[in-house]
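About this split. The held-out portion is used to measure sequence recovery: a designer receives only the structure tokens and must propose an amino acid at every position. Recovery is the fraction of positions where the proposal matches the reference. Here is one held-out target exactly as it appears in the evaluation file.
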């Protein structure tokens, strides 16, 4: 077995194996943890089919392509198991690109296995079309139920075949926690809003943000200054990526604008370092222009991307990180460009001057962190547990925190601190400590890592390089030193300590927010992004800098962040993407297979069997009917995942609690009510038998059964009418449901008051 951090790494050792001598083709099973990191896919087919190699186009092989070509397609037949909490972000292609790894990028391989009426490419195209339409709906209409209703039946069939889904809330609701261990109880999150500094009359967050709003960041868009007569020469990126130089630069400018705001939110030090790097780059560029102006010797501009200035886990930077394009100074109005970048340089220098006096001693946020740490050490929320995990998006901030706090924590509190980032060397206050990624995490959380250590680490400062895939539940206190603009990242951070089997009774999340009202914060983000789009839109005469969709996204984000201030939420509750838990029935098939192994004679069970259970907070009094359709007419439009079986949950007063188009929800309820019960409830059965005269007086339940079937008929009729006014084939002329005669009763579950 090989434990390997990245397929692009081919030197050094992993688990004692020399990677230079490794034959990747020998592995017949690949397990990819956090597989959503491969959601962007790669051009593993198109160019190959044309007989074109990426090297010939000047395109560097990415990790997706490397994994596909050198591991999965080479050597022995390889099976692929992918693990992810967020397999789908905002497009179904995220999932498709991951599945491609399992079927080697060739759709025929999986089409043959799935045995569906449509091929997998068509299924995903249709699903994405439905999702795009759904995403444009008003927030009140953009519900999971609406999406599920519109997706094709084949999509669910495909998903059932390739996924197994579980979530925290699902496990807590439907599983026996005594057997598998419990989750710790989440305390309400603590929100802090530290000022930028304690200095009187000093610049504040809003003042700086206003200054940022006035920047042009022309240093990142030299293509805008290319003479009109020569613009065609710069239409396509020299590397053959298909991204225009103009498009790359506009993307970079927007990224840098938002990134400056993010770094300001993170720490004064991080913001200052970024300003200094940009200033140095501008000065170098001005020097190059001046030299060209004097000598007229050929000079070219290659826009730089300061990789260290970006959140290393931010996928938005990926399309720009490796794309290079040179622009000759003689082809552009460099005088005007120099004027504009010089104007930005003046603004940057002014900002640096304003920040000069904000030393660590006057950094209010830093000092608040130290105070909060001391309070936690003195008042542990679980007996004896002083461990704290501090997250930040940027390595600069992480190093700053370590430099300022590690020695103080050691001398004043007697506790050890360590630092982990994805881009800098790890550090630790334990003397003669063997620094490595695994050693640091093991010393911080030895019980969860099952490690023996001589001395433990109590405070871990880290970037989001460990926000996924790590079990660190020895710790019970997590501080987000900066708030990521994607709320999912905050949930992922907290997930490092919010894990099943934790020995802590309670866990705490603390968030440091910018010293600005949330509404102003969101508007500021929108304003910065819209300003960076201004150049694109002026040519169209459109003075609305944010589209309706973008405005909706900002409102969406506002609601998400406001919620995070008040509660700790689960991934599936954030409405940021698609909750795969809502899309499949695989887990119930696994339950069924287990049951069949234990009770192989289930095929001989008589129809009409029933049971009586007590109501719960999730199940009000009523009846759940399980039926089988006999004439195949009901599922013409392929909406029922269980066809030819149908489930309807109807209350005692005839209200349909859950119709047949939501079998997953119904199966969840039935599992909650029945699983693990080896015997019947004698008291409830006694009351039921008395009420029905031992089953001889069932008129009430016969009437409810008729109403349940009527609900199926009504939905079918409504669907038929809709099909008359929709594209594609109508269902109105196909099959007529007569009613009760079209179904046979398989079983029913009666839910009664306790």
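Reference sequence for scoring:
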């Amino acid at each position: 077995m090989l434990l390997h951090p990245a397929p692009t790494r081919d030197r050094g050792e992993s688990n004692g194996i020399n990677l230079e001598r490794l034959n990747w083709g020998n592995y017949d099973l690949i397990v990819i943890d956090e597989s959503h990191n491969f959601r962007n896919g790669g051009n593993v087919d198109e160019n190959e089919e044309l007989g074109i190699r990426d090297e010939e186009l000047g395109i560097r092989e990415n990790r997706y392509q490397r994994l596909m070509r050198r591991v999965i397609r080479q050597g022995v037949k390889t099976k692929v198991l992918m693990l992810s909490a967020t397999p789908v972000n905002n497009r179904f292609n995220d999932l498709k690109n991951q599945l491609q790894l399992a079927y080697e990028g060739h759709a025929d391989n999986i089409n043959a296995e799935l045995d569906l009426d449509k091929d997998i490419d068509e299924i995903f195209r249709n699903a994405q079309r439905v999702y795009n339409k759904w995403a444009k709906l008003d927030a009140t209409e953009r519900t999971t139920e609406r999406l599920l209703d519109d997706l094709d039946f084949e999509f669910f069939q495909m998903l059932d075949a390739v996924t197994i889904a579980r979530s925290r809330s699902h496990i807590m609701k439907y599983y026996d926690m005594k057997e598998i261990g419990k989750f710790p109880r989440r305390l309400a999150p603590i929100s802090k809003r530290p000022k930028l500094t304690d200095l009187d009359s000093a610049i504040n967050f809003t003042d700086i943000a206003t200054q940022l709003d006035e920047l042009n960041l022309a240093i990142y868009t030299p293509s805008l200054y290319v003479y009109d007569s020569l613009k065609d020469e710069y239409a396509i990126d020299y590397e053959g990526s298909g991204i225009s130089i103009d498009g790359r630069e506009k993307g970079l400018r927007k990224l840098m604008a938002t990134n400056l705001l993010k770094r300001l939110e993170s720490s004064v030090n991080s913001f200052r370092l970024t300003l200094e790097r940009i200033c140095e780059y501008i000065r170098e560029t001005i020097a190059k222009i001046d030299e060209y102006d004097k000598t007229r010797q050929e000079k070219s501009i290659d826009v730089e991307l300061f990789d260290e200035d970006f959140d290393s886990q931010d996928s938005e930077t990926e399309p720009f990180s490796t794309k290079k394009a040179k622009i000759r100074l003689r082809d552009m109005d460099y005088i005007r460009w120099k004027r504009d970048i010089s104007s930005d340089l003046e603004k940057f220098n002014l900002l640096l001057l304003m920040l000069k006096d904000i030393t660590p001693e006057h950094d209010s946020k830093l000092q608040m962190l130290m105070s909060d740490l001391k309070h936690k050490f003195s008042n542990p929320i679980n007996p004896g547990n002083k461990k704290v995990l501090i997250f930040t998006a940027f390595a600069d901030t992480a190093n700053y925190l370590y430099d300022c706090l590690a020695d103080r924590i050691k001398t004043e509190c007697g506790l050890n601190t360590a630092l982990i980032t994805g881009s800098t060397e790890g550090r630790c206050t334990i003397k003669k400590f063997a620094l490595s990624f695994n050693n640091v995490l093991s010393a911080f959380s030895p019980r969860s890592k099952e490690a023996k250590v001589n001395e433990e680490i109590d405070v871990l400062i880290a970037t989001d390089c460990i926000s996924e895939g790590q079990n660190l539940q020895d710790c019970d206190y997590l501080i987000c030193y900066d708030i990521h603009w994607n709320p999912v990242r905050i949930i992922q951070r907290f997930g490092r300590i919010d894990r099943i089997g934790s020995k802590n009774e309670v866990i705490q999340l603390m968030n440091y927010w910018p010293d600005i009202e949330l509404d102003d914060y969101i508007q500021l983000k929108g304003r910065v992004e819209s300003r960076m789009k201004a150049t694109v839109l002026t040519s169209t005469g459109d003075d609305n800098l944010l589209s309706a969709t973008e405005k909706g996204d900002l409102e969406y984000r506002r609601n998400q962040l406001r919620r995070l201030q008040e509660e700790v939420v689960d991934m599936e509750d954030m409405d940021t993407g698609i909750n795969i838990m809502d899309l499949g029935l695989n887990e119930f098939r696994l339950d069924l297979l287990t049951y069949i192994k234990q009770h192989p004679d289930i095929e001989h069970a008589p129809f009409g069997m029933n049971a009586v259970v007590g109501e719960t907070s999730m199940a009000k009094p009523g009846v759940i009917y399980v039926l089988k359709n006999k004439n195949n007419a009901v599922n013409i439009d392929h909406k029922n995942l269980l066809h030819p079986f149908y489930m309807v949950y109807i209350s005692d007063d005839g209200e349909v609690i859950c119709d047949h188009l939501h079998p997953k929800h119904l199966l969840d309820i039935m599992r909650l009510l029945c699983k693990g019960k080896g015997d019947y409830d004698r008291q409830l059965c006694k009351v039921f038998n008395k009420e029905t005269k031992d089953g001889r007086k069932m008129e009430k339940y016969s009437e409810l059964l008729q109403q349940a079937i009527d609900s199926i008929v009504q939905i079918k009729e409504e669907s038929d009418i809709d099909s008359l006014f929709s594209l594609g084939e109508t269902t109105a002329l196909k099959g007529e449901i007569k009613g009760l005669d079209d179904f046979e009763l398989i079983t029913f579950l009666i839910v009664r008051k306790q």
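Annotator remark: The chain is about 40% helix and 10% strand.
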